[in-house]
Amino acid sequence: MAAHAVPPLSYRNIRLLRTAFLQLHQQQQDGVFCDVILQAEGESILAHRCVLSAFSQYLRGRFSSEEPHSHKVLLELHELKAKTLKKL
């Protein structure tokens, strides 16, 4: 599959972006629509696959081999400290 160029963002509404991220954070806290479990040092964090892949080329590659929405993906991040994972 060829990579598609992303068009530049021509409209920005800071209030809308803030609201979207606050809602995503609340969903994460409630475990709603979370389809990934990140694990480091025995601690688990629920996350949204689409958000992680939007910010990380590495994770986008990891998720691209998975069937979308088929099941929760468990990623054990041995090279990461739990404290660092929580900050992400």
Short characterization:
The chain has 88 residues and is α+β, with helices and mostly antiparallel strands. It has helices at residues 14-30, 49-55, 57-64, 82-87, and strands at 36-40, 43-47, 73-76.
Structure description:
By secondary structure, the protein is α+β, with helices and mostly antiparallel strands. It has a domain at 32-87: Potassium Channel Kv1.1, Chain A, CATH 3.30.710. It is built from four helices and three strands; from the N terminus they run αββααβα. The chain has helices at 14-30, 49-55, 57-64, 82-87; strands at 36-40, 43-47, 73-76. A three-stranded mixed β-sheet has the order 2-1-3. A hairpin with a 2-residue loop joins strand 1 (36-40) and strand 2 (43-47). The longest helix is centred in the first third of the chain and has 17 residues, at 14-30. It is globular and about 40 Å long. The two termini are 29 Å apart. The model has no long low-confidence stretch (mean pLDDT 82). Pfam families: BTB.
Q: What are the defining features of this structure?
A:
single chain, Potassium Channel Kv1.1, Chain A, alpha+beta, 88 residues, 3-stranded mixed sheet
Total count of helical runs of at least 4 residues:
4
- Overall geometric form: globular
Instruction: Provide the succession of SSEs.
Output: HEEHHEH
Instruction: Give the terminus-to-terminus CA distance.
Output: 29 Å
| Class by alpha and beta content | alpha+beta
CATH-assigned homologous superfamily of the domain at 32-87: Potassium Channel Kv1.1, Chain A
Largest sheet: 3 strands, mixed
The percentage of residues in β strands lies in 15-25%
What is the helix fraction of residues, given as a range?
Answer: 40-55%
